[in-house]
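Query structure, 283 C-alpha cells:
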C-alpha cells in the first residue's frame, strides 16, 4: 500500500510464526482454493481493514523466515483503497507509514523486502518539501540514536570496525551534516557553484589529531547541527527545494535531494552501528 506522498505501509509481525517480531509489507499465504489476487483482497480486508482499489503485480521476491524456511512472495502495488488502514491485532503488533528508501524500522525489516523497496520504490521518491524532508530527518535520526544505544555502554568508545568507534560515528555525522547544509546553501545561492563531496579521509586525519569529545559534547554537536538544518529548511519556500544545481559527478541535482542526503548518510551509519552492536555483544 503506497500513499500519495510515496510512503508505504509496513507492519510488525507478532512474536510467533516465520517472521516473528520482524517488519514487512502486509503479507499472507495463498490458500489452495484461491488465487494470489484473491489472497491480496483478503489480506487488505482482514489484516488492514480497507476495501482494496486497483492493484498491479510488481515482482516476485524470495524471502527467508525463521528456522531456515523460504517463501516465494508475489509483490503487488496498491495505490488506492477505501477506508482508513489500521492493523489487525490478531496478525500484527504495530504499523508505520515509512519512506521506502530509508524506512525508520530498517534494521528490523525483512532484508529481502528492504532491498526490494529501496531498489524499486525508493530512488524516485526522495521528498522535495520542507515538511517531508523534516519528517525523514526525524525518522533517520531516531533510528541512528536507537542503534547507538543498542551498543553496550562499555564498548561505545572502542574501535570496533575499521578504526571507528560508535562515538566516532556520531561525531562524524554531526560534522557531515554541518558540511552538507553549508554546501547545499552554497549550491542554492551562489550562481555556478558545483557541489563538492565531503572528504572522509581528510576528516578522519583531522579528527584523530585532536582530543576525542565525550558523549555529552558529541550529542550537543549533533543537536546543534540538526537545529541549524531545521532553521534553514524553515526559511525556504518549497519551490526552492525543487531548483537544480550542479554536481561534479552527477550533473544536475535538486536542492531538496542534496539536503535529504543528510538522512541517507545517517541511514548508512545506522547499519554500521547495528553491526558494531552485534560485534560488541559477541566479544
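Result returned for the query:
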Amino acid at each position: 500500500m503506497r500513499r500519495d506522498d510515496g510512503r508505504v505501509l509496513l507492519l510488525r509481525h507478532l512474536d510467533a510464526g516465520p517472521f516473528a517480531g520482524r517488519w514487512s509489507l502486509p503479507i499472507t499465504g495463498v490458500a489452495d482454493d484461491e488465487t494470489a489476487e484473491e489472497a491480496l483482497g483478503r489480506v487488505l480486508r482482514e489484516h488492514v481493514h480497507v476495501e482494496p482499489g486497483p492493484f498491479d503485480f510488481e515482482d516476485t521476491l524470495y524471502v527467508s523466515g525463521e528456522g531456515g524456511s523460504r517463501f516465494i512472495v508475489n509483490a503487488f502495488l496498491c495505490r488506492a483503497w477505501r477506508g482508513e488502514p489500521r492493523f489487525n491485532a490478531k496478525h500484527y503488533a504495530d504499523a508505520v507509514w515509512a519512506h521506502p528508501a530509508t524506512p525508520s524500522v530498517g534494521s528490523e525489516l525483512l532484508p529481502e523486502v528492504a532491498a526490494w523497496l529501496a531498489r524499486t520504490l525508493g530512488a524516485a521518491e526522495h521528498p522535495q518539501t520542507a515538511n517531508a524532508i523534516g519528517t525523514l530527518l526525524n525518522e533517520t535520526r531516531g533510528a541512528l540514536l536507537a542503534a547507538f544505544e543498542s551498543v553496550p555502554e562499555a564498548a561505545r568508545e572502542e574501535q570496533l570496525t575499521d578504526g571507528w568507534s560508535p562515538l566516532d560515528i556520531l561525531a562524524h555525522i554531526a560534522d557531515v551534516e554541518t558540511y552538507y547544509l553549508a554546501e547545499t546553501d552554497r549550491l542554492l545561492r551562489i550562481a555556478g557553484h558545483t557541489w563538492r563531496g565531503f572528504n572522509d579521509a581528510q576528516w578522519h586525519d583531522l579528527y584523530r589529531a585532536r582530543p576525542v569529545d565525550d558523549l555529552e559534547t558529541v550529542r550537543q554537536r549533533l543537536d546543534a547541527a540538526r537545529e541549524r538544518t531545521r532553521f534553514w529548511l524553515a526559511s525556504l519556500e518549497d519551490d526552492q527545494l525543487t531548483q537544480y544545481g550542479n554536481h561534479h559527478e552527477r550533473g544536475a541535482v535538486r536542492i531538496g535531494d542534496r539536503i535529504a542526503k543528510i538522512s541517507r548518510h545517517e541511514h548508512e551509519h545506522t547499519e554500521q552501528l547495528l553491526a558494531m552492536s552485534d560485534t560488541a555483544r559477541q566479544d
